[in-house]
Design a protein that fits this description.
Helix content: 40-55%
Radius of gyration: 17 Å
Order of helices and strands: EHHHHEEHEEHEHEHEHEHE
Number of helices: 10
Distance between the termini: 17 Å
Oligomer: single chain
Number of strands: 10
Structural class: alpha/beta
Number of domains: 1
Length: 219
């Protein structure tokens, strides 16, 4: 994975947003102010919204980030849509960000709908290959039941886990964030979950670091 700097306009806007966040402005208010000043597109706004953190929050997140040595023979919970969409974004050439807090994030979002996939899906196979190499004790995959096709996808994931010989289960939840906060180790870049869980694995970073993809940095 190659890290490249964002365009100068984005870097300057990120600097302003970082300052406002450090002064206690909410993310929404600060982004609106910065967006007006720099005339940002909706995509540029998403990049800043997902990528920029004040130093205190960024450092707190970094302290929770673990490497693969910590997950051997352990139970890993996976925030499925969060992880899958970031991996798929990187592998298909969409924008991904190396964020201020050290996590890799995409700018797609889910918004209640995802494209249906099958077991031949490349990103799905790469994800399963990675999980099989981590020597996990068990994996628990949590899907948002409010997203289209989640029930169907859950069944597909269960089949693929079995095919790859990975011990684990998958289930849907109306409140996946709440469910994920109950686990000790979680694979996600969702900042709400990061704030509530002590050990976070950046699974997309582990996967995408093996491929010739670009992630933009905002510093």
């Amino acid at each position: 994975m190659k890290i490249v700097k964002a365009p100068q306009k984005i870097l300057e806007a990120a600097l302003d947003l970082r300052f406002l966040l450090s002064r206690g402005y909410t993310r929404e208010v600060a982004l609106k102010f910065v967006s007006c000043r720099y005339g940002l597109t909706s995509k540029e706004q998403r990049i800043l919204y997902r990528g920029v953190y004040d130093d205190r929050t960024a450092n707190r997140h970094r302290q929770k980030k673990i490497n693969i040595n910590y997950v051997k023979n352990q139970k890993l919970a996976i925030d499925w849509y969060n992880v899958y969409i970031t991996v798929d974004s990187g592998l298909t050439g969409d924008t991904i960000i190396l964020c201020d807090d050290g996590f890799i994030r995409d700018v797609r979002g889910v918004h209640g709908k995802v494209t249906r996939i099958d077991e031949k899906n490349f990103s799905l196979r790469i994800l399963m290959e990675c999980l099989s190499e981590l020597s996990l004790g068990e994996v628990e995959i949590v899907l948002d039941s409010m997203v289209s096709w989640s029930g169907e996808l859950k069944n597909l994931i269960l089949k693929v886990l079995k095919d790859w010989g990975i011990e684990g289960r998958a289930y849907t939840s109306k409140k996946p964030d709440v469910q994920l906060m109950k686990y000790d180790i979680v694979a996600t870049s969702d900042s709400v979950i990061i704030e509530r869980v002590n050990k976070i694995l950046d699974l997309p970073e582990i996967i995408l670091s093996k491929f010739d993809v670009e992630a933009i940095t905002l510093k």
